[in-house]
């Protein structure tokens, strides 16, 4: 991601190319580019729906949204949202491993640690409590 920003590329377009093989093929053929300083159309201009979907998945996963929330945001089925999330994770296997490691450590310790070393105590992680969204949680997502 950092390399992409440094070279002036569009991260969401890069992710769209990872998620949609036909976009990757168009890039490889030189028909589109992920940066606007090329002499061909951008992924953003030629594949706006796919790029927008990739952007929604990027931010959804970043903020911890599940397939249900992403499906609602994109107005698609939960199954389609899961497929899109799987496609996203396919090219970012390290993210899934990192998330699993953080969840395991947090569940074991009952707290989570930020990148700056601050702790957030999460006592319900140690209990076997099923998640039930409340009406206020559902409205907060909107």
From TrEMBL:
<keyword id="KW-0808">Transferase</keyword>
<comment type="similarity">
    <text>Belongs to the DNA polymerase type-A family.</text>
</comment>
<protein>
    <recommendedName>
        <fullName>DNA-directed DNA polymerase</fullName>
        <ecNumber>2.7.7.7</ecNumber>
    </recommendedName>
</protein>
<dbReference type="Pfam" id="PF00476">
    <property type="entry name" value="DNA_pol_A"/>
</dbReference>
<dbReference type="InterPro" id="IPR002298">
    <property type="entry name" value="DNA_polymerase_A"/>
</dbReference>
<keyword id="KW-0235">DNA replication</keyword>
<dbReference type="InterPro" id="IPR001098">
    <property type="entry name" value="DNA-dir_DNA_pol_A_palm_dom"/>
</dbReference>
<feature type="domain" description="DNA-directed DNA polymerase family A palm">
    <location>
        <begin position="1"/>
        <end position="141"/>
    </location>
</feature>
<keyword id="KW-0548">Nucleotidyltransferase</keyword>
<keyword id="KW-0238">DNA-binding</keyword>
<keyword id="KW-0239">DNA-directed DNA polymerase</keyword>
<dbReference type="InterPro" id="IPR043502">
    <property type="entry name" value="DNA/RNA_pol_sf"/>
</dbReference>
<dbReference type="InterPro" id="IPR019760">
    <property type="entry name" value="DNA-dir_DNA_pol_A_CS"/>
</dbReference>
């Amino acid at each position: 991601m950092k390399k992409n920003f440094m070279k002036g590329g569009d991260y969401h377009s890069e992710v769209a190319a990872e998620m949609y093989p036909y976009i990757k093929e168009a890039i490889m053929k030189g028909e589109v580019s992920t940066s606007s300083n090329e002499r061909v159309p951008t992924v953003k201009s030629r594949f706006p729906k796919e790029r927008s979907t990739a952007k929604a998945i990027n931010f959804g996963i970043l903020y911890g949204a599940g397939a249900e929330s992403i499906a609602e945001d994109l107005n698609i089925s939960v199954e389609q949202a899961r497929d899109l999330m799987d496609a996203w994770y396919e090219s970012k296997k390290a993210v899934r491993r990192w998330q699993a490691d953080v969840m395991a450590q947090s569940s074991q310790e009952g707290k989570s640690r930020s990148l700056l070393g601050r702790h957030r105590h999460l006592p319900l992680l140690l209990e076997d409590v099923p998640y039930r969204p409340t009406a206020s949680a559902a409205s907060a997502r909107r």
